[in-house]
Amino acid sequence: MILTQQLILGVLVGGLYGLAAAGLSLTFGVLRVLNVAHGELLMLGGYGTFWLFALWGVDPFLSLLGVGPALFVLGIVLYWALFQFVVKAHEEIRIKNSLLIGFGLTLVFHTLAIRLWTADERSVTTEYAGTVLKIGVFSVPLVRLASLVLAFALLAALHLFLAKARWGRAIRATAEDWEASALMGVPVGRTYLLAFALGTALAGIAGGLVSVSYSISPSIGIEWTLKALIVVVLSGLGSLFGSFAGGILLGLAEAASVVVLGGPYREVVGLVLFLIILVARPQGLFGGRG
Amino acid sequence: MKLLLGGIALTVGFAAVPLVIGRDDLLNLGVQIFLAVALAQSWNLLGGYAGQITLGHAAFFGLGALVTRILWVRGTPLLLALLAGALMATLLGLIIGGPAFRLRGAYFAIGTLGLAEILRITVGNLLPEISTIPARSLATYNLVPRYYLMLALAVLCVAVVAVLVRSRVGLGMRAVREDEAAAEASGVGAFRHKLLALAVSTSLAGLAGGAFAYYHVSYYHQHTFSPVWTFDAVLIAFIGGVGTIHGPVLGALFYVILKETLAVQLVEFHLLIFGTLFVLVVLLLPGGLVEGWARARHLFSRR
């Protein structure tokens, strides 16, 4: 009973884990850049949604139409100002430097958020926030269900874009082999820029959804970076639906641990899983490359 | 030679402070600087010289603090408690070293971050109460011995790392950092050297944690496992000059003094500045303040 209810909630939060991880996996997979400030970008998206709602009463789901593009632009700025210099380096140095830069950005965004918006926890509470769908004895919060569906739809759309569109194919080709792509006339620099900005926008939208169903504060950045990293390690790079599935797997594992071990260990389960997989497959479940 | 003399002069200067002016605020500032030197220098051995960037330094600092604090509060002599803390931190380092060094680059960094977070959450769950020095010690709490202990710790960290990296083993560590395969091919065992760097680095971090446990009157055990300790170490080492002996010392002085100056009006503001500085250093000045100084001197000496 309790277990099933927890598992339902686990699936719902798992969709957001998947969405957060998809953005990270996109930038990591394409640029070979590990942006550990990903969670901070998610946090910024969350605040965007929160303030649009708090100041002007904009519906949180509607505000994603503004938050997504805004974070896309922030991604362009970050890439242009910082990461374009990193991608020129050789792979190992590239990952190391991007990790360090992401670490610096994490501190900057985190401190900025505290200065601007205080350390308080906030969340968007709409009129329909309390609506619960009753399925037998189980209850499904409507907002969370909508978030899950939206996350899935977004990833499906992105998948289509990567599969069919000209720029989408450029992204996939560059991820496969940037040198060969450059020789085939793919503008690698702009492809990197696009992939990075898309990853940032995904983080922002995920953050908006987090602010509706859960709560945001300046300190959620690191938590969500870790969640996204765990999911990326669980599911590997290269597949958006893989990230989605990995996210749901993590949500389920956390839910099960809440029932078995109690609430406080919820965060530990994912990390333990993460370490086991990292050590058991040191080359990563990240596919065979690199 | 010049560096050695500078180090000795700095140490003597700091050692004279309690004799000349015994103001508590100055002593506390000193303690913070020494702790920062110890943290950054111990991180520097593994992250700077051996090239293994870790984001899990807090795990070893925290474990050292936890063990020392519990033993010392229960009546174990301080020195023994400190040694036990350092030993436990080293042991943890050796245990995770095997599996962790199978991870390369970024995976090692985020893997160690994950480990530190697991410890932090678990310790927070198991020991949620605040830890306070017992009343009998509180009545006689004196800052001066704590100041000297921290100074000794900082000097020890700098000395150990300086001696080690100038030895044959230290050369091996740097070889591993530059090119693992080439080092192996020249008969330098990469795993052996990395593990040694990890063992020394973690024992110093554990010792620093123990000294913190002796210094601080009351705190939550979880606090010593906080990623903040790792962040401080990484920021200081990089801004000062990673992979040099005097870099982390300069970085610590700069970091703590600026942090305290800013903290008067703007709490936490220093992280904004240091985060930005850090990004700039990684992008533009990989040698930190030390390299910046050398470049500036070069520029002027040409004229």
Question: Can you offer a commentary on this structure?
Answer:
The complex is a heterodimer of chains A (290) and B (303). The radius of gyration of chain A is 19 Å and the shape is globular. Chain A has a two-stranded antiparallel ribbon with strand order 1-2. Helix content of chain A is 77%, strand content 3%. Chain A is mainly alpha-helical and 290 residues long. In chain A, strand 1 (132-135) and strand 2 form a beta hairpin. Chain B has a single domain (2-302), classed as ABC transporter involved in vitamin B12 uptake, BtuC (Orthogonal Bundle), CATH 1.10.3470. With 303 residues, chain B is mainly alpha-helical. Chain B has 14 helices and two strands, in the order αααααβαααααβαααα. The relative contact order of chain B is 0.17. Chain B starts with a helix and ends with a helix. The A-B interface holds A 34, 36, 82, 85-86, 92, 95-97, 99-101, 103-108, 110-112, 114-115, 222, 226, 229, 264-265, 267-268, 271-272, 274-275, 278-279, 282, 284 and B 53, 55, 99-100, 102-107, 109-111, 113-115, 117-118, 121-122, 124-125, 227, 231, 234-235, 238, 268-269, 271-272, 274-276, 278-279, 282-283.
